[in-house]
Amino acid sequence: MHVAEEILNRLSDAPDQDALWLCMTQIIHGLGFKCFSYVDVRQLPLHDEALPFYQTSVRSDFVETYVSMGLLGYDPVVTRAASSNVAFTWADCLEFDPRVRRRAGPKGRAWQVMGLAKDHGYTQGFAMPLHAVDHRGHPASALLSLYWTEAPEEMDHAVPFWLKLAAATYHERLLHFRGLPQTPAEAPPTLTDREREILVWACRGKTRSETADILNITERTVEYHFDNAMRKLGVHNKFHAIAVAVQSRLIAP
Q1: I need a surface site. Which of 7, 45, 69, 104 has the fewest CB within 10 A?
Q2: Is the dihedral of CA 126, 73, 171, 177 positive or negative?
Q3: How many CA atoms lie within 13 A of 171 on its CB side?
Q4: pLDDT at 10 over 70
Q5: What is the pTM for the complete model shown?
Q6: How far apart (Å, rounded) are the C-alpha atoms in residues 224 and 75?
């Protein structure tokens, strides 16, 4: 059997989350990576917000420092993965590019991530953005980041073509296992056609006046439908209404 088929079958047949983790650990070690991290990147925390779901096999002292410094929401590898489809190395991020001269003075948090990684022996990595849908049918994005510890001049790792397929399978299976204990999802609120139209035009940057002209209605009517949409969505401002509507797949901007 071809190695890619064998790998994908092993991931697909994992009976639970622990077995899935063990399988991926064996895969990445077999490719010469030291460790890996999986991070849900749907909402990245800033300041004292709660951490998203994550798994990691990196050094515990690295994780403790990284978390205590609140670096996740500022990590250039993580933020790039949240809005990208293409796999990349850490060096593709400006803060990790060895050719870039470091400016003097205090470093921003993105630069601190790079320094912390090097201080703990992680010299380079390979990141794969992963996009699927969760058990509720909502978009679910994550990052699988693989770590090297060799000196840059000693690294000679070929990344096989099937690794991205394996990562995508891991992501989909993990979403499945994470969704199993959850209660059935509540149906999203029902918006009228006009309420959806109002939200879409607002998402596209139109003002209340411009939306009224486009739909050939009054500004007061625009406001009326926006208020109804916010009430149904359980939010208290228009920006949050747009975000919830997009996330709930009620509108497609």
Answers
A1: 104
A2: positive
A3: 25
A4: yes
A5: 0.71
A6: 41
